């Protein structure tokens, strides 16, 4: 069902045109005009549960969510165009419209003609009908845009009072005006006293100059460099950095901006990274530091089920390459243990370094010799990524399992490009992009199960990050069962009847923090 919103003609309603199409995108009925988009979508969704086709979820769905309307499926034209354009060698950027429920975004979306939308959809269907895997990728990506909008609208349970107490305990009372918090001011004074002169601890140049005046030739102010310096100012500088980061990134201004009604409401950007991974635009949704996680508190009568996939990329490599011995290793709870037994005399640490080295192209130090050992025992898996690396070095484009293309090299690459860097990128791209696809298929299936579960206690998705999902639920056993089933479904969907396992580490918690976050 193609839907095209019309600009509001006064009041709070917005009209729309809809038309039913066949699988090829051709209309099979007359275009219908509706006075109210939300009312029309609600009626059609309830009766038929169609796959909605719209310009972008970011520009349409927030309006529906604010009206209390949700849909099961969609085809996001903007997301699809980004993927197909990259495959055609003309990289396009994701939509500039973030998934954001705040008022005003929908009204600012440009009007579009329904015939234009139909033509674009028909052309996309023509391309997708020729490639089953690519069609699956688009379906998963579109489902991801719905999940992103819903999570941004619903928000992640977050105690504003707990976060204020954290800020006050670490930084001191909320400062007035432009003054720094009391504790940052105190540490600044201690740093100045340690150097015997006034300076700005946030200035790299001033810190390096202060060290030189003390006969210390520091090369930078990076953490690992400072830790090698024997000077009383070093722990103070590191403390100042931590306090300043908390204040600037997740301080009171962040709390006022992004937490409303005890819900953290970030802006997710699905597929913003070339590998298909998500990013966030505002709020730092994908970078919730440990210090904040104790403020992510479940509602009364609810709990969180936190699930993350361990050793995801090595397992993806095993499934993609079909290396018999690597597949067998990936059938265990700990993939590195059988790899260590087969190639490194049981040394798990060496096995882990070797596997990660082959994924990321590490060839320095011990990695080179370990890679040689790994190649002898798992030649098919190693050759799989090395072929991708060699293709990248030749300036070629490589693809994920479902057909996402990596960006082509920059113009002039063959004459002055960094061949090795390109090879390292394509080596990892084929695996990391496929891992993102697997995780997205898990997310899409989990969303479907949670929203259609007749029990209604399974809960809702509240967080997604690369290889981790969080469900806010009144029934943690049921939520965990849905997660496990979604993992199995996604694995079969991508890799068929494989022996590779993707074990999920499941934890049931009242807060997002685990027992180690306070250490």
Automatic annotation (TrEMBL):
- Name the record gives this protein: DNA-directed DNA polymerase
Q: Which CDD domains match?
A: DNA_pol_A (cd06444)
**Pfam families to which the protein is assigned, alphabetical:** DNA_pol_A
- Catalytically driven reaction(s): DNA(n) + a 2'-deoxyribonucleoside 5'-triphosphate = DNA(n+1) + diphosphate
**Entries under SUPFAM superfamilies matching the protein:** DNA/RNA polymerases
Keywords attached to this entry: DNA replication, Exonuclease, Hydrolase, Nuclease
Report the Gene3D superfamilies cross-referenced here: 3.30.70.370, 5' to 3' exonuclease, C-terminal subdomain, Taq DNA Polymerase, Chain T, domain 4
Respond yes or no to whether keyword Nuclease is given for this record: yes
For whether the record's keyword set contains Hydrolase, the answer is: yes
In its UniProt entry, the species of origin is given as: Rhodococcus chondri
NCBIfam families hit by this protein: PRK14975.1-1
Q: Which domain of life is it from?
A: Bacteria
Q: Which PANTHER family match?
A: DNA POLYMERASE I, DNA POLYMERASE NU
Q: Which EC number(s) does the record attach to this protein?
A: 2.7.7.7
Q: Which InterPro entries match?
A: DNA-dir_DNA_pol_A_palm_dom, DNA/RNA_pol_sf, DNA_polymerase_A
């Amino acid at each position: 069902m193609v839907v095209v919103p019309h600009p509001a003609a006064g009041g709070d309603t917005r009209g729309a045109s809809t038309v039913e199409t066949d699988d090829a995108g051709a209309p099979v009925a007359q275009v219908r005009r509706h006075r109210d988009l939300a009312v029309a979508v609600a009626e059609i969704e309830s009766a038929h549960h169609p796959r909605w086709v719209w310009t972008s979820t970011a520009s349409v769905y927030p309006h529906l969510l604010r009206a209390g309307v949700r849909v099961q499926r969609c085809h996001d034209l903007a997301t699809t165009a980004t993927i197909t354009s990259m495959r055609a060698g003309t990289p396009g950027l994701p939509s500039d419209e973030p998934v954001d429920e705040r008022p005003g975004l929908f009204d600012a979306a440009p009007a579009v003609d329904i015939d234009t939308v139909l033509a674009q959809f028909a052309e996309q269907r023509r391309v997708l009908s020729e490639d089953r895997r690519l069609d699956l990728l688009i379906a998963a990506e579109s489902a991801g845009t719905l999940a992103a909008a819903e999570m941004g609208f619903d928000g992640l349970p977050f105690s504003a009072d707990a976060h204020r107490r954290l800020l006050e305990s670490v930084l001191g009372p909320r400062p007035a005006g432009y003054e720094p918090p009391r504790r940052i001011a105190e540490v600044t004074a201690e740093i100045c006293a340690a150097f015997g002169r006034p300076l700005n601890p946030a200035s790299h140049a001033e810190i390096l100059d202060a060290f030189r005046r003390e006969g210390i030739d520091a090369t930078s102010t990076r953490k690992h460099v400072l830790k090698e310096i024997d000077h009383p100012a070093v722990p103070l500088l590191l403390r100042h950095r931590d306090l300043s980061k908390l204040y600037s990134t997740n301080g009171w201004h962040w709390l006022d901006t992004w937490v409303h009604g005890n819900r953290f409401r970030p802006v997710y950007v699905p597929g913003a990274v070339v590998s298909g991974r998500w990013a966030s635009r505002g709020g730092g949704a994908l970078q919730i530091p440990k210090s904040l996680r104790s403020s992510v508190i479940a509602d009364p009568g609810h709990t969180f089920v936190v699930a993350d996939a361990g050793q995801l990329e090595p397992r993806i490599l095993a499934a993609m390459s079909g290396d018999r011995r690597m597949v067998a290793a990936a059938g265990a709870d700990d993939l590195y243990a059988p790899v260590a037994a087969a190639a490194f005399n049981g040394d798990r640490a060496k096995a882990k370094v070797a596997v990660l080295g082959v994924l990321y192209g590490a060839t320095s130090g011990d990695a080179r010799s370990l890679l040689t050992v790994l190649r002898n025992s798992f030649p098919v898996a190693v050759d799989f990524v090395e072929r991708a690396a060699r293709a990248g070095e030749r300036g070629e484009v490589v693809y994920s399992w479902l057909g996402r293309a990596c960006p082509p090299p920059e113009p002039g690459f063959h004459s002055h490009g960094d061949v090795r860097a390109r090879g390292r990128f394509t080596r990892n791209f084929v695996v990391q992009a496929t891992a993102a696809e697997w995780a997205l298929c898990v997310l899409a299936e989990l969303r479907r199960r949670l929203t259609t579960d007749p029990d209604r206690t399974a809960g809702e998705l509240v967080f997604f990050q690369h290889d981790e999902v969080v469900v806010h639920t009144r029934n943690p056993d049921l939520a965990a069962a849905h997660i496990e089933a979604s993992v199995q479904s996604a694995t079969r969907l991508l890799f068929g009847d494989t022996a590779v396992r993707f074990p999920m580490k499941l934890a049931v918690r009242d807060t997002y923090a685990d027992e180690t976050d306070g250490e």
